[in-house]
């Protein structure tokens, strides 16, 4: 082999560049590298004010006095809770939150202090190496263990307090029975059924309503939560926390409202297109007003129908085809043994119809020609007490003649993704999917529905 043309001084074996200590014994320092390291070290410090501004902006976006906020008037008070269940949950939340805040501040504060105070500076020697600090390690093992055990045991106790048996015990302590309300989640509205709306009176009043529930003040209310389609979540922030509403099973919770008034509820589980618009309201009435509402529900109307409302009834039963999906003047009954009833039958019809839509176009055309297509009924709100409600569209807009007229003409303009404009036959005959009714028919129908009190 030939030799490479190196001189003795240039031989790689004799070079000291980059190897071993320099002649004076100092550690070599690359000025460029050291400068860039210092610049990188400043970035964490510069990010702190940026993070602070971001947290401040996030805090400004929170409204402690919002309709669905329990953190009012201040995040650490219990005044936002309007019942014993919400109060227990809020107290537990506050203790958990502020405990975590204190732990976070202590740990992160110590970390930041150590990072800044003992950061390495140019020319600093390596610090002395240590291993372990037994008292400190014992302390930061025992303290978190005690905190976790204490908060965990308390959480379990609160969970037992939320069981419906507590509501039964509270009611019977006063010689009463709790009110039981069945809440059924639909895409995207709430159905409320009272098997016995006056549990302490004889008669067993059956009531079915939608999106606006009425309960008496200072009375334990047990909610039986069901779903006809997908998973929903039932939540009344100022009265009770969230509970999932799962198809094929019944979940329960209870609450007691200590003050009369109106409370806002919301579906808290993503359930499809109009999930954010699946709201409801809870009207807490004094005992006399609640009994008057129950006794006046259904049967004869409070006032005789006007001429316009009488014509609107014919539209409801005929041209409007509203009666296909909606009930007026009576509750939607359910067989207590099988669970079958009016709304269940409508839901089954809806499922059959959606399956029919999956058939090839030629087969569907043949079914239409031979009269074998399934009906297009589907579960829809009971309208018996519509005139007494304050909103339509599952709590989206205030109820008045103008908003009701707009809803009937074009539901999509108020609530995008609603089932009514998607499936009801009256919206399928026009290209713009508006109601196939004249302005006079719409006016008459509005009068008839507003008369339902």
Name the descriptors:
453 residues, alpha+beta, Cytochrome Bc1 Complex, Chain D, domain 2, five-stranded mixed beta sheet, 11 helices, 12 strands, 39% helix, disordered N terminus
Descriptive overview:
With 453 residues, the chain is an alpha+beta fold. Among the domains are: 166-296, Cupredoxins -  blue copper proteins (Immunoglobulin-like, Sandwich), CATH 2.60.40.420; 307-450, Cytochrome Bc1 Complex, Chain D, domain 2 (Orthogonal Bundle). The protein has 11 helices and 12 strands. It has helices at residues 31-60, 84-117, 134-161, 164-173, 287-296, 307-317, 342-357, 361-370, 401-409, 419-423, 439-450, and strands spanning 179-186, 189-194, 207-210, 212-216, 221-227, 232-236, 240-245, 251-255, 261-267, 279-285, 391-392, 397-398. Strands 3-2-1-5-8 form a 5-stranded mixed β-sheet. Strands 4-10-9-6-7 form a 5-stranded mixed β-sheet. A hairpin with a 3-residue loop joins strand 6 (232-236) and strand 7. Helix 2 runs antiparallel to helix 3 (134-161), helix 6 crosses helix 11 and helix 9 packs across helix 11. The longest helix is centred in the first third of the chain and has 34 residues, at 84-117. The radius of gyration is 34 Å and the shape is elongated.
| Strand composition percent | 5-15%
Question: Biggest sheet, open or closed, and with what strands and sense?
Answer: 5 strands, mixed
Count of strand segments? 12
Order of adjacent strands in the largest pleated sheet:
3-2-1-5-8
Range of helix content: 25-40%
Gyration radius, to the nearest Å?
34 Å
Which second-level CATH architecture of one domain applies? Orthogonal Bundle
Helical segment count? 11
Q: Kindly report the average pLDDT value.
A: 83
Order of helices and strands: HHHHEEEEEEEEEEHHHHEEHHH
Distance between the termini: 109 Å
Low-confidence residue ranges: 1-33
Say what the CATH topology of one domain is: Cytochrome Bc1 Complex, Chain D, domain 2
Given the C-alpha coordinates, what overall shape results?
Answer: elongated
> What is the top-level CATH class of one domain?
Mainly Alpha
